[in-house]
Amino acid sequence: MKFDGIAAFVATAEAGSISAASRRLGLAKSVVSERLAELERSLGNRLIQRTTRKLSLTEGGHMFLPRAQRILREAQEASAELAARSGTLAGPLRLSAPVSFGILHLGPALNTFIAQHREIDVSLELDDRFVDAMAGGFDAVLRHGAVGDTRQIARRLAVSRRLLVASPAYLAEHGNPRSLAELAQHRGVLYANREGDWRFATGHGWSVVRPKAALRVNNGLVMRDAAAAGLGIALLPTFLLHGSVTSGTLVPLDVGAESEGAELFITYARDHGASAKIRALADSLRRSFGDPPYWDRWD
């Protein structure tokens, strides 16, 4: 049983196709296919059922996958530990992050980290969907908001506020809400990957506002631009808003209650262990973002 065959199988199972696995591994499709076939011959079992339309794991493939993932992870961690002992961090580091945050803030911060650790092979995928680090084959996932998965460890990187904002044109036409009751009568630009409820801290606990949706979308930059275009009010994290507020494109609203905040976490599988690479990345990102983060400093 060859190690590269195990790597080809895990990449194919996690990516869902040989084409996607070949892109992840940086190999030709024919090479990945041959390594899969060789692994199946060495095991004496078919692991993947191939048809012209789709690829699926056999019963044996489902049984073998978690062990194969563990073999790869252990090998990668052993390699990273040896490199760390020699004073060098090296090897692959596969990350996932939300699209808007990745474009605006993670990219520049990651450039700094890579420049300091040239031997680390970083792979970043931007995705606004909920990404499972374990199922997706990622070493770590950056996420805003609660993790809620006991299989994963979450380390806080930064805190972000959320602000209600609207364009001057929208407020001129529809008025400026001064209370939660008035806010509920307005149109909202809502995040599609989460319940559309807006939560606010009051003296009696949390109050929920359910505005009528002018638009539901799963990307913060599109939400920001829709609010700037006057479609409705948006509740957005400050990391998306700094330039728009300082330029006057969007106006923060005061409804007499503070909106629920957001925290930025780096998460990884509990059985992964906090590898030296993940610890170094988390430390580097915290330094780049600052405390409080630079997107919450308005002067």
Question: Could you name the key traits of this structure?
Answer:
299 residues; D-Maltodextrin-Binding Protein, domain 2; 3 domains; 15 strands; five-stranded mixed β-sheet; elongated; Arc Repressor Mutant, subunit A; 11 helices
Topology record:
Elements: H1 3-15, H2 18-25, H3 29-43, E1 48-50, E2 55-57, H4 59-85, E3 91-97, H5 99-116, E4 120-126, H6 133-136, E5 140-144, E6 152-160, E7 162-166, H7 168-174, H8 180-183, E8 187-191, E9 198-202, E10 205-209, E11 212-217, H9 220-228, E12 233-237, H10 242-247, E13 251-252, E14 258-259, E15 262-269, H11 276-289
Parallel strand pairs: 3-4, 3-5, 8-11, 8-12
Antiparallel strand pairs: 1-2, 5-15, 6-15, 7-12, 7-13, 9-10, 9-14
CATH superfamily of the largest domain: Periplasmic binding protein-like II
Strand order of the largest sheet: 4-3-5-15-6
Distance between the termini: 60 Å
Radius of gyration from CA coordinates: 23 Å
Order of helices and strands: HHHEEHEHEHEEEHHEEEEHEHEEEH
Note poorly predicted spans: none
CATH topology of the largest domain: D-Maltodextrin-Binding Protein, domain 2
CATH architecture of the largest domain: 3-Layer(aba) Sandwich
